Amino acid sequence: MLYKNSRNSQLVVPNNTKATYNRRTFVARKSLLLPAGENLFQRVKKQSLAAQQAGIELIKLSIGQPSGPAIEEACSATAIAVMSREENMHEYQDNDCPGVPNFAKRFVQAHVKTDLKLLDGTVEYLPIPGIKPMLHVLVEALGTWESGRTARVFTMTKPGYPTPADACKPIKGIKQVHLPMDPACGFLFNIHDAEIQALGELAEGDMIMLNFPHNPTGIVATDLFLPYLCAYCAKKGVRIFNDAAYSILSHTHNAATLTDVASRFPCLNWIEAFSASKAGNFTGWRVGAMVGSPEFIGDIKRIKGNTDSGFTAFSAAGILHLFENHRDKIEAVRELYDSRIKLVIRNLIDCGMRLAVEPEAGFFLLFNCPKKAFGQEINDAEQFNALMIQNTGIVGVPFGKWIRYAICAADVHALRDEIRRAFEKAEVSY
Questions:
Q1: Closest CA to 177 of 146, 139, 204, 208
Q2: Closest Cα partner for 237 from 179, 151, 301, 136?
Q3: Which of 382, 370, 418, 402 is CA-nearest to residue 214?
């Protein structure tokens, strides 16, 4: 029996009724999700923790997060902004950034070669709280959940960071497809590949989710590859999205952004997203921006506007100050990663490891998984990674037939001898 408490008018259950409770009275608590495998990165963390508890000193080449404090100039500008008495610096920013006018356009301009003034009236911009939270919104913007139709989303996730594929799973009417990334072609894909064509012609409402520069291969898109893809998608009515989180860290002049190419195709429905996270230690600041065709951006704005209130304006102010006034600081970070990449590649190749593809951006290295290590036959990269953790303390991330190492958190110059000895001990062979 329920009684009303006169003091606060809340309904309460008298203590003497608790004795009558039993398991048969109530529905048992349970998960409403189907059983699923453990997250790859959580498995690696669990293996690493077990090794640490066993007294093994780890060298974490698994973490794709820059270490150290955020770049000082950005911190100083953010401190000034957070002390501002202007209300628009502290209010909801929603789908704009009143605290930092024209933030999205200015941030995108810092990443692309095209003079964005030339695109006025043909593209729109959107500030975003990082790229990851927007991936499911991009898929929802295909409208299958309200139209009842189906659509396919093609992702660069085999090998690849799994989040784009995971973003597709909960959304009604979406079929996610891994693009056939061919190691023989530098992990690029051919849109006319038989594996794609067997699924039927791509059509209006489908989407290709690119990730250039790519995680984990470090490959970049070029002005040869992107026009071919844009022309095909414009003809078919297929949307294109590019996650360009690592574009600021390109180590080659051959890299092209989707923005620089897509603007040549007036009928193309496209979006490109840029993030501040990789330029320094800004992963927790959650600041980025999108640019794209007005129709696609409009669809994103509708869904995003109904589900979030925007990012933090004072973080955006600090980030933009850095990108517009201290580009040399970002370039120093890029040069550091470039030198680390070359050092690790050289040492690991000397120890018998085989590079899967030459990285041209970012801070990731992808190697073919050895067939033999520590005198054992190796079935896959997950087994190899576990053996490396147990026997040497080297932590990577397995991607099926490949293993990824990151050089942004560990000082690989200081650890070069330890890393070399670890791979010499493994005695890998193919």
A1: 208
A2: 151
A3: 402
Q: Is the pTM of this model over 0.85?
A: yes
The number of beta carbons lying within 10 Å of the beta carbon of residue 208 is 24
Task: Return the CA Rg of the chain.
Answer: 25
CA distance linking residue 170 with residue 157, whole number of Å: 17
Place of tokens 């050895």: 370
Structural domains in the chain, sorted by start: 40-69+328-426 (3.90.1150.10), 78-325 (3.40.640.10)
The amino acid present at 122, given as its one-letter code, is: T
Query: Residues 248, 254, 256, 260: what is their CA dihedral angle, to the nearest 10 degrees?
Result: 110
Using left for φ > 0, alpha for ψ between -120 and 50, and beta otherwise, residue 237 falls in left
pLDDT at 32: 87
Rounded to the nearest integer, the mean pLDDT of the chain is 92
Taking the C-alpha atoms of residue 49 and residue 52, their distance in angstroms, rounded to an integer, is 5
* Contact predicate 179/190, CB 8 Å: no
Number of other CB atoms surrounding residue 262 within 10 Å: 28
**Is residue 289 pLDDT above 80, yes or no?**
yes
- Determine how many CB atoms are found less than 10 A away from the CB of residue 80: 12
Amino acid residing at 202: L
